[in-house]
Design a protein that fits this description.
The protein has 186 residues and is mostly loops. It has one domain (37-168): 3 Solenoid (Pectate Lyase C-like). The protein contains no helices and no strands. It is elongated, with a radius of gyration of 16 Å. The mean pLDDT is 87.
Amino acid sequence: MRERSSSDADLPRPFAALDLADQSLGGLQLRGAIFSGASLSGATFDGADLSGAKLSKADLTKAQLQGTDLTGAILLQTNMTGAYMLVVNLSGANLVEANLTGAHLPGANLTGAILTAANLTRADLSAADLSGALMTGAELANANPAETTLAGMHLPDVNLTSICWDDSTKWPANFTPPSDRTGCNE
């Protein structure tokens, strides 16, 4: 892995379908790398550059991605259940049908991300920025968007059942937030 880590975006990095579970890959330059279908559960990518990486259908269950750059990454149908992604940059990322159940995303940058039909049940989105994110059909039941910027988001058909929000949550213009905050008590 380390010998294929480089700031040279033209260097081929095919890691598709490899088993890299529980590996320490923090700080690596993996811009544009191909991890589609790879097993990355429990792997550590803290501070890595995965901008433009292709991670479709990869397993990132309980992976550590603190401070990781995933700008413009393709994460279609990726499993990120319970992943720890403090201050991760997912701006412009494609997360269509991604599973982020119970993921920890405090301070995450999700501006302009495509989260169509993504599952964010019980996800911690506190202080995250989802400005301009597309979330058609997304599942946000019991999620925590306290102190989160949701302004400019597209929220058609989004399930906000028992979502835990507070007065600092910034909702889209002309949007009435759900009155039920029972998720805050769970």
